[in-house]
Amino acid sequence: MKFSRLISISCVALFFSNLSFAEDWYQIEVIAFEYTHPNASDVELWENQPSEPDWKSVISLTDEATAQNRRKQEEAAKAAAAPPPPPKPEPTHPQEQNMVEQGDHGDDDETDYAPPPPPVPKPVVPEPAKPSTDVPGQKFVTVEEILTGQHGQNPQTQAPSPTPPGQTPLDFVGLPSSQFTMADIERRLHRQGTYKILTHTAWRQAAFTGNNNEGVHIFGGKLLDHEGPLGNRYEFEGLVSLKSTKYLHLDVDALLRGSSGKDQGSKFNAPADLALLENPQHSNERSHVYQVYRLEQSQRVRSNKVYYFDHPLMGVIVKISPYGG
Fold first, then answer.
1. Which residues, other chains included, contact 21 with Cβ-Cβ below 8 Å and sequence gap of 6+?
2. Nearest to residue 301, comparing CAs of 281, 319, 276, 287?
3. pLDDT in tens, 20-78
């Protein structure tokens, strides 16, 4: 009997601990790049024209002003749905007021009306850094060597900026570069000359829970001149999803689109390589001229660590940082 009661208490404690864990906020930062090393395309074979990620449950990053307006609309909707406040008591006669002051005061009215929260200060975006004058290294340095510090000094990562007191963070807002924490890693990748940075972005959110299949849309590189399920297609785009069950898991599902027949699609030399060319047999039809490569991986993650998702032609580096709300 005691054993079963102990199990019940443990299950309840675990349930509430999972609830509180699911409400934790995180800052997610992503660097995606393409290998430009001459031998990168000879590493292994991959599937031709793979299927695409599930674009049905996509969350697009927005700017701070749009997120603020969205929050105001949500607060206004909650206020409209809330019951009206109780009517204020009518003013009493001076003699009656004096009697109340001298006698029993009764229950005080403890209804307070909190002032609206102060506006979130806009981050100051610094001036763009001057381009590096370092000569790209002649030796091919792997991403693992850069992340582990085996090539030179260990790259530095910063902590995310704290939330202003009394305010809750804005979710799915693209952060300015001044709030990036992996700027040193990006500089080291760019300095090597063998990695082409496709995108570097960051945002904040609470981890998805349950059977939620939503993912944050990331994209970068060159813009293709035709539309896809989400509008314009890009050289690189994908979904990043942070899920919380008993542990944290990170899913990365990304595509790299390269022109077919030219270095396995790892380089773009002309606008025609990104376009739709005329079909010589049917002049009214057009066909794709690029090859699609897919990176699809899932990994258990922990806070304050950098994770590397690898592919023969591209890579995605992700850092998960706890963010106080």
1. 244
2. 319
3. 333 689 999 999 999 986 665 554 555 656 788 999 989 999 998 999 998 899 889 88
For 12, 144, 244, the CA distances from 208, given in Å and listed in that order, are 21, 29, 6
| pLDDT at residue 15, as a whole number | 38
Q: Read off the pLDDT of residues 199-233 as tens digits, 9 standing for 90 and up.
A: 999 999 999 988 888 999 999 999 886 677 788 88
Q: Is 94 exposed, middle or buried (0-12, 13-18, 19+ CB in 10 A)?
A: exposed
Token reading at 105 = 């005061």
Q: What are phi and psi of 66, to 5 degrees?
A: -65, -40
How far apart CA 145 and CA 158 sit, in angstroms, is: 19
Task: Please list the ranges in the chain whose pLDDT falls under 50.
Answer: 1-22, 43, 100, 123-137, 261-287, 325
pTM: 0.67
- Nearest in space to 269 (alpha carbons), one of 258, 256, 277, 279: 258
Kindly report the three-state secondary structure assignment for every residue of 236-286. Answer: EEEEEEEEECCCEEEEEEEEEEEECCCHHHCCCCCHHHHCEEECCCCCCCE
* Residue 62 DSSP one-character state: B
CA distance 83 to 49: 56
Q: Are 54 and 226 within 8 A, CB to CB? A: no
**What are the backbone dihedrals phi and psi of residue 274, each rounded to the nearest 5 degrees, phi first?**
-100, -5
Query: Residue 174 in 3-state DSSP?
Result: coil
How many CA atoms lie within 13 Å of 13's alpha carbon, on the beta-carbon side? 6
Residue 61: both structure tokens together = 């990053």
